[in-house]
Structure formats: structure tokens, C-alpha cells
Design brief:
Blueprint lengths: L20 E6 L2 E6 L22 H13 L8 E2 L9 E2 H5 L3 E2 L8 E5 L1 H10 L2 E4 L2 E5 L2 E4 L2 E5 L5 E5 L4 E6 L18 E10 L3 E4 L5 E2 L2 E9 L7 E10 L9 E12 L1 E22 L3 E14 L2 E4 L5 E5 L4 E7 L2 E4 L7 E5 L5 E7 L2 E4 L11 E3 L5 E10 L3 E7 L26 E6 L2 E10 L5 E4 L8 E5 L5 E6 L5 E4 L35 H4 L4 E7 L14 E7 L4 E3 L1
């Protein structure tokens, strides 16, 4: 029956008994064993860890299970990712792509000190996972190019028990894979999906790390004292490069969907901090939401700042100055009515340039609610501009506003060279000029809708004035709208109507009046030229065309022939 399969054998007439033999083929060699008998170790050799020492099938199975259950067991199991081009690896190599803090003995029961276990995981892994649990620790150091992430901000909790810094970010030249770059390296830190409960002074310390592309995403940073105010002297995220050196630069960092609560300072960026973005950051019960000093290229967008702490500030601009700060679509809700809160604090007097504020919402209370919605304390820089602010006018109600509080008569707000108002669906162009302290005295210049321009001055019921002035303040021409409106020179005998070469063709007048002068006060006829006219009050004669002389009592008109003044 050579070549016959076992399944093709005829049924046995009688069951095999204890001494019956069973053919076993191993390694191409047929062996005979007794049913219920033993298998010599030499006959089972292809096991994961070598030769099986057991003399029974069950014993061999037990040895294989023991090998797989050992710490090296996953190195005996294969893994192949789906997809064309995948390369076979062991299950051990696959599982080591991510390190869990529990791999090093972290318990996460809220009682055990897990500092050593978590630090051990951070020392070896570039992607370290925090499973659900509450993990106590005194302080941790995270090294460059590490991602620390948890199950969620509500289930994976790192609970700080120390008095100083909770998490210190450390980056050295050894962390940089190519060793290049003096100011900017490729090192980074990524923090995601866990809660950090801080007990001491600093949550994350990322200063002096020469890092790029550090990110906080879906991280809840809270101080243990939240709910009862803020912890004095504390900072949630601190990037302090002072005193600055080339190896301390921190560039292109980002906070996205981060919740900060219970600190004196939310985010502190000090001394050559560049290109940070805070996007959808929610801060509550924080005294100073963002503190900037020596910072460049800071973009704050879609954030919500809420605080009932006395003297709370939204963004504090430090004495070292900086530039290119943009704050967009944020909400400032500072609600301690007994004190004074401000959205922007420039009281340190730093040199800040290009600070742009766009589409923000304010609910700022203070001074017993006597004065609300205060925006700025200190002197705003000239380049501070707020777009789409709403101004409530007594005349027009709520109107959109472009606000540049740092502008002045010596440093005006610069518009483009060519600007056009009106002419579209909104109608004729009009520029309004408000009066300080009141909305009831606007003046304006407008296109009248035909072919003219109207100059409209405010009126107090009896007086309307227009003044044409030089830039030194001298009034050259004045229009006064009294009971009898009149044009007048800015001062007596100071202005001419036309010139010798640019004359008026026709002058129509109902009453043309000349103020009488003395002959002695007439200008020289040769100087004023032929054709000038005047009226004198002290002529000694009245003969027409005679040369006028003073000393008399006659009121006569006179004219200049270019040489003399004559009566007539």
C-alpha cells in the first residue's frame, strides 16, 4: 500500500491497543512508536528554542508554551504587515516600535511612585505611551526627538509631587542625527493626549533646548491649586532662553487644543523665542495668560482666556521688546469686577513693532464695573493695529473700527498712497472727522452725488467755522458762520485775493467795503503796482486824479498808477 494516504486506509477491524505500533514520519524517516508510549527527545528536534528534553508529547507542548511565554517569546513569533513590499519582522521588533511606561514597571494606581519606571521608559524610547491610570512622579526629563502620548486627557494622568519643574525638555548635540546647525536643529518634543497635574513651579520647561517643531496637542496642564485661585510664581509652559546663546534657540513650536488652568503665567516665552503658534488654547484661572519678552513671530489664534483673578492680563509684552505678534479671533473674558484687568499690557515699556490684533472679543470688567472693556495698559506701540474692532457711537450706534492707539500727530497711521471711498453699492464717498470726547460734533468731506464736494463743519447752533491753516498752526483763511456768515483773513492785512499774473476776471458784490486807512499807511505805489485800490480817511484834498496827501479829514477812494496814489 505504498503511497497510500492515511485517510485512504481501510478501517481497522479491531481498535489499536497499547502495544500496537504507530508510524511517525520525522525528517523524512519513518519511526515506530507504541500508542500511549513515549517519544524520545531525539525524535522531536525542531522546536523554537532547540531540542525538547521532554519524553512525552504533553511535555514537549509544555516546553514550547514555556519558551513562548518567556521574555524573549515574541522574538519567536513572526509578523508581516499587509500590503505589497512589506518585510517580515518578529512580533518583538514590531511591539518595540512603541514603549509603554508599564513596560518598565509603572503601576498608575495614584499611590505608587512611578518616577523611576517612567524615566526608564523615556531614556530608551522615542515614542512612549501612557496607558490609563494616575502616575505619581517627582520630576521627569524628556530627551530630544521623543513623543510622549497617552490614552486621553481624562484617563492618562501624570501627577507631579515635586516642588520645582515637572517635565524638563533636554536636547543636546548628541540628540541631533546629522550634527548640523548652530541656531536651528531638527530636534523636537511631542506631547499628546494626557493630563499633567503640576505640584510645583513649572509644568513643562522647554527653554535652552535648540529645538524645532515641538508640539503640545490635546494636553491638559493644571495646577493642583486650581479651583482656589492660582499658584503664585508658577508657569504652565516655560521657554526661557535667558541669558541667550546660539545653542538655546527654540523655533516653530506649537500648542494645539491645550487646556491650561491654575497658574500665575500660562505660557512664558523669554529671550529669542521665534515662530511659536498658540491655536485653540483655553486658559482658565490664569493671571497672565501669555507673557512675551524678546519674542518674534508669535501667532495666537482662536484662543479663549477666562479669568476671575484680580489684575488679570491677557497678553503681557515685556521690556525686551519683540516684533510680528498677531492675535486673531480670541476671546478675553476677565471678570473680576473689583480690580482692573487688561487684554494687552505694555506697561514694561519694551520696543514692540508690528503687533496686529484681528477679530477679537472682549468681556473685561473692573473698577466696580464703573469702567469696562479696557483693552490696553501702558503705552501702545505705534505699530499696534486692531482690525474689526466695534465702536459704539452715540450717533451711529455700533460701527466697525480700525484702531491704532499708538498713532499721534507726530506718528500718524499711514494709509496707502491712493485710497478710494464710496462709488460702490454703499453710495457716495464720505470721510468723517470726529471730535475728541463727543460723537455730536462730527465734520466731514463728501462727494455730493453730482459733480461737487461738500465740506461740512459741526455747528453749536450759532457758529460754524472753517479754518485754512499752515502746518505750523497759522490761520490764513477763516470762514465764520455767524448770523451774517463771512470769510476773513487769518490775521489783519495778511492775505491777497489773486496775484498780478493770476487775476479774478469778474467779482460780483452787493456791498464791497474797504477799511479806511491813513495815507501814511498805504504801501508804496511802486511796490503794489498799478491798479491797486484803497480808501483813506485823512486826505487833504478831494480833487479827482490828484496825488493824495495826508493831513486832512477827507474820506476818499484812492488808486495806484504804479508811481503815486491818486484820488479817485
Amino acid at each position: 500500500m505504498a503511497g497510500t494516504k492515511i485517510s485512504e486506509l481501510p478501517a481497522a477491524s479491531t481498535p489499536l491497543a497499547g502495544t500496537e505500533l504507530l508510524a511517525v514520519v520525522q525528517g523524512g524517516v519513518t519511526k515506530q512508536v507504541a500508542v500511549g508510549g513515549t517519544i524520545p527527545a531525539s525524535q522531536i528536534v525542531n522546536t523554537p528554542s532547540g531540542t525538547v528534553a521532554a519524553t512525552t508529547v504533553q511535555g514537549a507542548i509544555n516546553e514550547i508554551v514555556s519558551d513562548l511565554a518567556a521574555s524573549s517569546g515574541t522574538s519567536l513569533v513572526g509578523f508581516l504587515q499587509s500590503g505589497t513590499g512589506a518585510t517580515a519582522r518578529t512580533a518583538q521588533a514590531k511591539l518595540r516600535d512603541v514603549v509603554s511606561v508599564k513596560d518598565f514597571g509603572a503601576v498608575g494606581d495614584g499611590v505608587t511612585d512611578d518616577t523611576a519606571a517612567i524615566q526608564a521608559a523615556l531614556n530608551v524610547g522615542q515614542s512612549v505611551y501612557i496607558p490609563p491610570g494616575t502616575y505619581l512622579f517627582s520630576t521627569l526629563t524628556v530627551y530630544g526627538n521623543t513623543r510622549l502620548f497617552g490614552a486621553s486627557t481624562r484617563t492618562a494622568i501624570l501627577k507631579h509631587t515635586g516642588a520645582g519643574v515637572a517635565v524638563t525638555c533636554s536636547f543636546t548635540a548628541a540628540d541631533n542625527p546629522d550634527g548640523r546647525g548652530v541656531y536651528i536643529d531638527t530636534g523636537w518634543f511631542i506631547f499628546q493626549d494626557f493630563e499633567l497635574m503640576v505640584n510645583g513651579t513649572v509644568g513643562f520647561n522647554v527653554g535652552k533646548t535648540r529645538s524645532t517643531y515641538t508640539n503640545w496637542e490635546r494636553v491638559y496642564i493644571r495646577h493642583r491649586q486650581d479651583g482656589s485661585g492660582y499658584f503664585a510664581g508658577s508657569t504652565a509652559i516655560n521657554c526661557d532662553n535667558s541669558p541667550w546663546a546660539a545653542t538655546y534657540s527654540t523655533y516653530i513650536e506649537k500648542l494645539n487644543n491645550v487646556f491650561i488652568r491654575g497658574f500665575e503665567n500660562g505660557v512664558n516665552l523669554n529671550d529669542t523665542v521665534n515662530s511659536w503658534e498658540l491655536n485653540r488654547v483655553y486658559m482658565i484661572e490664569v493671571k497672565n495668560q501669555i507673557v512675551l519678552n524678546g519674542s518674534t513671530g508669535i501667532n495666537v489664534a482662536g484662543c479663549y482666556f477666562e479669568s476671575g483673578i484680580a489684575a488679570a492680563k491677557g497678553v503681557v509684552f515685556g521690556s525686551s521688546g519683540g516684533n510680528n505678534v498677531t492675535i486673531t479671533a480670541c476671546s478675553f473674558e476677565l471678570t473680576n469686577v473689583a480690580a482692573t484687568q487688561y487684554a494687552y499690557d505694555f506697561s514694561a515699556g519694551g520696543a514692540w513693532t508690528t503687533v496686529t490684533v484681528i477679530n477679537n472679543k472682549y468681556l473685561i470688567q473692573g473698577d466696580g464695573n464703573a469702567v469696562n472693556n479696557r483693552r490696553i495698559t501702558g503705552t501702545a506701540p505705534t505699530s499696534f493695529v486692531e482690525l474689526n474692532r466695534t465702536y459704539t457711537s452715540a450717533t451711529y450706534g455700533d460701527i466697525p473700527m480700525l484702531w491704532a492707539p499708538g498713532a499721534s500727530s507726530t506718528k500718524p497711521f499711514q494709509q496707502p498712497n491712493y485710497s478710494r471711498l464710496g462709488g460702490i453699492v454703499g453710495g457716495n464717498g464720505r470721510v468723517l472727522f470726529g471730535r475728541s470726547g463727543t460723537d455730536a460734533s462730527d465734520a466731514w468731506i463728501e462727494n455730493d452725488g453730482t459733480y461737487g464736494v461738500n465740506f461740512v463743519a459741526p455747528s453749536n447752533g450759532s457758529v460754524v467755522d472753517f479754518n485754512w491753516k499752515a502746518n505750523d498752526g497759522t490761520v490764513h483763511l477763516k470762514y465764520q458762520g455767524y448770523t451774517t456768515p463771512q470769510f476773513s483773513a487769518g490775521s489783519d492785512n495778511s492775505i491777497s485775493l489773486g496775484t498780478a499774473s493770476k487775476r479774478w476776471t469778474t467779482v460780483y458784490s452787493v456791498n464791497a467795503k474797504f477799511t479806511p486807512v491813513t495815507v501814511a499807511s498805504l504801501p508804496a505805489a511802486a511796490t503794489i503796482g498799478a491798479g491797486a485800490k484803497a480808501f483813506v480817511s485823512d486826505a487833504n484834498a478831494t480833487t479827482f486824479a490828484s496825488v493824495v496827501a495826508g493831513g486832512g479829514a477827507n474820506n476818499v477812494p484812492v488808486y495806484s498808477d504804479g508811481t503815486n496814489w491818486r484820488i479817485g
